[in-house]
Amino acid sequence: MQIKQTSEIFSKATYVHIIGTKSQIPDFFPKELIDYVPTFEKSEDKHVTIKSIDKSYILVKQKLDSEPLRKEGAKIISAISSPKQNVYVSGSENDLYFLLEGMALASYAFTKYFTDEKKREKREEIFVSSELSKAKLEELNASISAVFWARDMVNEPLSYLTAEKFAFEMKSLAKKAPLNITVLEKAQIEALKMGGLLAVNKGSIDPPSFTILEYKPEKPRNSKPIVFVGKGVVYDTGGLSLKPTPGSMDVMKSDMGGGAAVAGAVYLAALWKLDVHVIALVPATDNRPGLNAYTPGDIVTMYDGTTVEVLNTDAEGRMILADALAYSKKYEPELVIDAATLTGAAVKAIGSHASIIMGNADQKYFNQLNDAGNTSFDRVVQFPFWDEYFEEMKSKIADLKNIGSGNAGMITAGKFLEHFVKSPYIHMDIAGPAWTDSTSGYITSGGTGAGVRLLANFLKNYN
Ligand code: BES
Ligand code: ZN
Ligand code: ZN
Fold first, then answer.
1. Which end of the chain lies in a sparser environment, N or C, as judged by fewer CB atoms within 10 Å?
2. Does pLDDT of 353 surpass 80?
3. pLDDT score for 20
């Protein structure tokens, strides 16, 4: 999906214009629509449409806020019956950016598994007038491609997206942007003694992977890197603590949404050429109850030497993240942020409208993340992170156990992870927004790409 600049006037198209002081309604718009503008401006309607046989003309009211424009963009796209119908948009630059962002994000569809060619069709392009600058156009196209990549990854089933394939898909990102990539294979993960990742992988017949994606510009603003860590559980059955199916295990191909978010964000940072040094670590495996699966009651020695009593094999995300978080120490990061579809508790607490953030980093970073959330409307909400919650994670027979009492599960999980990080830390539970069963505006059903625009915008204004 690409937004393209053109001055061509199509014979068949949907023409959209955002009215406003700075932009002229194109003169080819029907006179009756132009004459209607004063009435339209006074009305409650957000847009007005006139249709002829092969053309539609839509006037959209200028909005002061970005989000109503994105939502309007999504409505326009859903009103156009065929993805083959050309769409051309004009208006002034700021309005255009947000309307197009909504239109483009709403055009996403995961159709590759349909055998019927007609059903595989999706919108490939949207045209825009020269009122949108080249720089803004590139910025927007980059953002769309990063989000679409993340959505694709989350939507891919396990039969395609194994841990190795996920690493391979991240390699393909590194070919399209100035990124360095290293993929550790099972033998290397064993040599490093990443006990948490290996324990979760024991029930699987597919090997784990550990991907290191780095974006290092020539003159970075930060002297030490920011490290992102993303949960890459390509499928979570729960392991021996098996999940029920409806509404639970059946959507667990999405359990690598955190990995997709951090890789997508670093990719976008590279495409945007931000002056920030950032590294993404993505430990990946599926979590299965295979013959040799790790068991409730097992004690695992983690990468950093901590021993963990496993009381629920479904609390696997923290097992693999803990190793990656401990591994981040070698970069002496300025800040570590993880993104993970970590707990059902996060979904219960706030639903799908935000990710939950918590941690021990300076409050200014939380504020910057919150600002990035409001800018992108990929929002966050901060939860407490008191040490009292950590008490629940202490085991009678090992250093830690992998589950708490059951209350405030998203926070006890965060406190477990904090134990393994030696740098200022923010934990982000994206379990709510990462997946949706039904389309709402520009958030299309399935994987949403949550976290990509959020984290990239955070890096953009990082200081
Ligand atoms: N992947 C799940 C969390 C999840 C639940 C993500 C719903 C998205 C939607 C995670 O691995 C898990 O199973 N967590 C358990 C932890 C519990 C056993 C302490 C949970 O939340 O129930
Ligand atoms: Zn689980
Ligand atoms: Zn999981």
1. C
2. yes
3. 83
Q: Are 447 and 260 in contact, with CB atoms under 8 Å apart?
A: yes
In our burial notation (b when 16+ CB lie closer than 10 A, e otherwise), range 58-78 reads bbbbbbeebeebbbbbbbbbe
CB atoms within 10 A of CB 240: 20
Q: 323: CA distance to ligand 2 center in Å?
A: 16
Q: Is the CB of 236 under 6 A from ligand 1?
A: yes
Question: What's the order of all strands across the beta sheet hosting 13-18?
Answer: 2-5, 125-128, 87-90, 13-18, 55-60, 47-51
| Average per-residue pLDDT for the chain | 97
Confidence at residue 175, expressed as pLDDT on a 0 to 100 scale? 97
Distance (Å, whole) CA 262 – CA 453: 10
* Rounded Cα–Cα distance for residues 156 and 44 (Å): 41
Q: Is 243 part of the annotated catalytic residue set?
A: yes
Smallest CA-to-CA distance from 198 within 298, 339, 311 is with 298
- 352 Cβ contact list (under 8 Å, min separation 6): 432, 433, 436
Q: Take residue 110 and report the two structure tokens written for it.
A: 């995961």
Pocket test for ligand 1, best of 237, 314, 319, 389 (most atoms within 8 A of CB): 314
Q: Is 215 left (phi over 0), alpha (psi -120 to 50) or beta?
A: beta
State the first-to-last Cα distance of the chain, in angstroms, to the nearest integer.
Answer: 32
- Count of residues in the chain: 463
- C-alpha 454/C-alpha 333 separation (Å) is 20
Q: Containing H/E element for 317?
A: helix 317-327
Q: Which amino acid, residue 457? A: N
In this structure, the number of other CB atoms found within 10 A of the CB of residue 360 comes to 15
Question: How close is the Cα of 48 to the center of ligand 1, in Å?
Answer: 45
Report d(CA 318, CA 309) in Å as an integer.
Answer: 12
Strands 125-128 and 87-90 come out as: parallel
Q: Ligand 3 center to residue 281 CA distance, Å?
A: 17
State mean pLDDT over 283-303: 98
- Tens digits of per-residue pLDDT, 206-237? 999 999 999 999 999 999 999 999 999 999 99
Instruction: For 90-104, write each residue's pLDDT tens digit.
Output: 999 889 999 999 999
Segment 329-345, tens digit of pLDDT: 999 999 999 999 999 99
Residue 60: CB within 6 Å of ligand 1?
A: no
What ligand 1 atom has the least distance to the C-alpha of 345?
Answer: 21
For residues 450 and 357, what is the distance between their CA atoms, to the nearest angstrom? Answer: 14
Distance CA(348)–CA(72), nearest Å, equals 29
